[in-house]
């Protein structure tokens, strides 16, 4: 009886456990939830074994009570049969046999009363056991329901914790990016490229201007050479060059 009460008390204690309060006090909620699941699972297994034994004992007690009731009815039947036989012999005037069956009826009734006393003692105990078994079974169902809820909440909380961790990592990475401000780095690089492009265009224009000066210088040089050639021709006594019509 003590073992049954202990198991029932443990079931009630676990089913009334305030998980939220326990989580608030836990240093590592995930480890605490895993431990709770293990504790629930182990207690359910122990409770199932104990309840099975309790039910087995109850079924034996119920069988004994049913057998006692059967014996009680049989002794009642024997007492009735003895009374009928005694009345029959008494009507026939056979007093010795009538007294004999009266005595047999008394013995049967005494046996019936003894069994009846036993039944009266057993019946309340069996009824109490039946109620206790129902309470244990109900508590076991509650434990299994709570275990399912606990597992579901544990998985949900772990998933949420991992999501929060990932979000924190993303936020930290984003804050580092904001501090570095890669757009400003790109802007500076773009300005550098623009300056290089401008320098290249300037160099091209300078090169083009230099070539034009060289062509102009070349044309001037050719003109001077022609002048000198004609001067030499005149000094040699040649007539001035004429332009063909």
Structure description:
- The protein has helices at 2-15, 19-25, 29-91, 95-180, 182-235.
- With 245 residues, it is an all-alpha fold.
- The chain has 2 domains: 2-180, Helix Hairpins (Orthogonal Bundle); 184-239.
- The longest helix has 86 residues, at 95-180.
- 8% of the residues are buried.
In terms of DSSP E residues, the strand content is under 5%
Query: Structural class, from helix and strand content?
Result: mainly alpha
Largest sheet: none
Q: What is the count of β-strands?
A: 0
Mean pLDDT reading: 80
Rg for CA atoms: 59 Å
Helix content: over 70%
Count structural domains.
Answer: 2
Regarding CATH, which class of the largest domain?
Answer: Mainly Alpha
Uncertain runs are none
Number of helices, where a helix is a run of at least 4 consecutive DSSP H or I residues? 5
Which of globular, elongated, flat, extended, rod-shaped describes the shape?
rod-shaped
Give the topology string: H per helix, E per strand: HHHHH
Keywords:
245 residues, rod-shaped, mainly alpha, 0% strand, Helix Hairpins
Describe the secondary structure blueprint for this structure:
Layout: H1 2-15, H2 19-25, H3 29-91, H4 95-180, H5 182-235
Task: Please summarize what this structure is.
With 245 residues, the protein is mainly α. Helices cover 91% and strands 0% of the residues.
């Amino acid at each position: 009886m003590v073992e049954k009460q202990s198991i029932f008390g443990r079931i009630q204690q676990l089913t009334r456990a305030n998980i939220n309060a326990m989580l608030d006090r836990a240093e590592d909620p995930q480890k605490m939830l895993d431990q709770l699941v293990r504790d629930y699972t182990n207690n359910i297994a122990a409770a199932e074994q104990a309840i099975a034994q309790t039910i087995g004992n109850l079924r034996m007690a119920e069988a004994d009570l049913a057998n006692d009731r059967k014996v009680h009815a049989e002794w009642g039947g024997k007492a009735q049969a003895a009374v009928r036989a005694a009345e029959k012999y008494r009507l026939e005037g056979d007093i010795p046999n009538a007294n004999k069956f009266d005595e047999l009826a008394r013995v049967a009734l005494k046996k019936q009363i003894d069994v009846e006393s036993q039944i009266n003692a057993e019946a309340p105990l069996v009824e109490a056991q039946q109620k206790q078994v129902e309470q244990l079974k109900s508590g076991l169902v509650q434990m299994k329901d709570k275990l399912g809820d606990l597992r579901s909440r544990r998985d949900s909380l772990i998933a949420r914790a991992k999501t929060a961790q990932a979000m924190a990592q993303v936020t930290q990475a984003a804050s580092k990016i904001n501090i570095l401000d890669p757009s400003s780095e790109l802007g500076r690089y773009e300005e550098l490229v623009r300056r290089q492009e401008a320098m290249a265009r300037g160099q091209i224009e300078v090169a083009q201007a230099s070539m034009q000066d060289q062509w102009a210088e070349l044309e001037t040089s050719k003109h001077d050479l022609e002048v000198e050639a004609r001067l030499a021709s005149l000094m040699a006594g040649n007539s001035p060059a004429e332009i063909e019509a």
